[in-house]
Amino acid sequence: MEKGTVRLLGIGDNVSDQYVHKNTMYPGGQALNVAVFSRMQGAQTGFLGAFGSDAPAEHIQQVLRELGVDTSRCRHYAGENGAARVTLQDGDRVFLGSNKGGVLRLQPLRLKGEDLTYIGSYHVVHTSNNSYLDGELEKIKETGVLLSYDFSLQWKDEARLKRVAALTDLAFLSCSELDDRAARALMEQICSLGCGLAVATRGAQGALLYDGKEFYTQPSDYVEPVDTMGAGDAFASAILVHLTPDWRARGSVPEPETIRAAAAAAARFSAQRCLEPGAFGHGRPIPEGYQMHIVTTP
């Protein structure tokens, strides 16, 4: 299988990232970003999530159509699309509040027969801690796809960590706050629960990967960032695009040289994504009169 024939599906969150300092909204969300970034690298991609009925929802769907990301199985509900208020500090994105997924929070995905048939037509599925999908992961896994999950910082939730890691082939973790020893211990724990490959991103410190036997360190490719939004998702997408062909051919975690090559490619791709605003550009002015409902509960 070549990179261009990889079929990747993002399932879960899509978000309108609304930059308050310049009144501009950009498409985003962990699951959606990985689908878009994988498409940029030549993969055939789709996104399965829930869209609201407002202007941000229409903006995101229009961009996905332009980029060739399939959305044919998405849900559509009256109400607010997922949205977050954002600003920048020295090129680093800072979140100021969100509606916690909007309609997706109120109408989480419940996968049925046709959804599962559609999912099974892909090689790898990527979802996240913000996708309200944990209860559906077993169904996804039963379709035979590789399952990738971004814990972000939710690895701190021990119950979730144990439940989800046992079902995932690849786990992505935000570990900037951990020193090397603590990050390695966390990754060892995840792989001991059944995960095939754990990947910890640590910002300027680079990334650390663990396949249950060996650790791999990957330095960051340094750039002067315009915007770090989506950098971790970009790294994850490149790992998935580069490893999926060999993983599926072997039926197991790829060889060390393949993992090292994928990590180096991911560092390059992630760095380049920091050179444009938003996760992947396509900004549009926030509509006059639009007001997002901030949700403050967990």
Question: What is the element layout, followed by pairings?
Answer:
Blueprint: E1 7-12, E2 15-19, E3 24-28, H1 30-40, E4 44-51, H2 55-67, E5 75-76, E6 83-89, E7 92-98, H3 103-106, H4 113-119, E8 124-128, H5 137-142, E9 146-152, H6 158-165, E10 170-174, H7 180-192, E11 197-201, E12 207-210, E13 215-218, H8 231-250, H9 256-273, E14 284-285
Parallel strand pairs: 1-4, 1-8, 2-6, 4-5, 8-9, 9-10, 10-11
Antiparallel strand pairs: 2-3, 3-14, 6-7, 11-12, 12-13
Helix pairs in contact: 1-8, 8-9
Describe this structure in words.
This protein is of the alpha/beta class and 298 residues long. It has a single domain, classed as UDP-N-acetylmuramoyl-L-alanine:D-glutamate ligase, CATH 3.40.1190.20. The protein is 34% helix and 24% strand. The chain is built from nine helices and 14 strands. The strands form two sheets. A nine-stranded mixed β-sheet has the order 5-4-1-8-9-10-11-12-13, with helices on both faces. It has a five-stranded mixed β-sheet with strand order 7-6-2-3-14. Helix 1 (30-40) crosses helix 8 (231-250). The termini are far apart. The model has no long low-confidence stretch (mean pLDDT 94).
What is CATH's topology name?
UDP-N-acetylmuramoyl-L-alanine:D-glutamate ligase
Radius of gyration: 18 Å
Our estimate of the beta-strand percent is: 15-25%
Class by alpha and beta content: alpha/beta
> Helical proportion?
25-40%
Reported for the largest beta sheet, the result is:
9 strands, mixed
Shape designation = globular
End-to-end separation in angstroms reads 42 Å
Q: Secondary-structure element sequence?
A: EEEHEHEEEHHEHEHEHEEEHHE
Query: Under the CATH scheme, which class?
Result: Alpha Beta
Which parts are unreliable, with pLDDT below 50 for 5 consecutive residues or more?
Answer: none
Count of helices?
Answer: 9
Domain tally: 1
- Going by CATH, the architecture would be 3-Layer(aba) Sandwich
Widest beta sheet: strand line-up: 5-4-1-8-9-10-11-12-13
The count of β-strands is 14
